Amino acid sequence: MIRAATFAIATLLAAPAVAGGHSKDIVDTAMGAGDFNTLVAAVKAAGLVDTLKGDGPFTVFAPTDAAFAALPEGTVETLLKPENKDQLVAILTYHVVPGKVMSTDLQDDMKATTVQGGDITIDLDNGVMINDASVAAADIAASNGVIHVIDKVILPGS
């Protein structure tokens, strides 16, 4: 899993840059990495593609495919059903913070309000944790924000 995440990060960092930043937005950056297929499918099912391709800036705590696979069996399939769109939107927007928050901006025990409206907690005592998810890679630049790769899907209210 670490090797795949490392490859995905190397792919993200190799994305061509343009004057003033990177040429790919958050969605295209995630699509190009190859380790966020489930996240991209969920963003599409939730109708959030246009939002995350918008001006931003956004900070996305992006769970890998392995993070989604670790959810209880059937969870992803259930969330992707049209009748569960509101729940899917709530989960996905809980992974997004308005503005561009780089790793150097983080402080131990700080809270950040997500687009969903709930707060996430940053813990720097044992590596970088977002709630109970570890940050596997940080500061992946996109034209409209930044991606931090996490190893777990974080859920509102947990």
From TrEMBL:
Q: InterPro entries per the record?
A: Adhesion/Biosynth-related (IPR050904), FAS1_dom_sf (IPR036378), FAS1_domain (IPR000782)
Instruction: Point out the signal peptide segment.
Output: 1-19
Name-wise, this protein is Immunogenic protein MPT70
The Gene Ontology CC terms held by the record are: extracellular space
Q: Is Signal set as a keyword in this record? A: yes
Which branch of life, at top level? Bacteria
- Residue ranges annotated for the FAS1 domain, each copy included: 23-154
- The answer, when asked if Signal is one of the entry's keywords, is yes
Q: List keywords of the entry alphabetically.
A: Signal
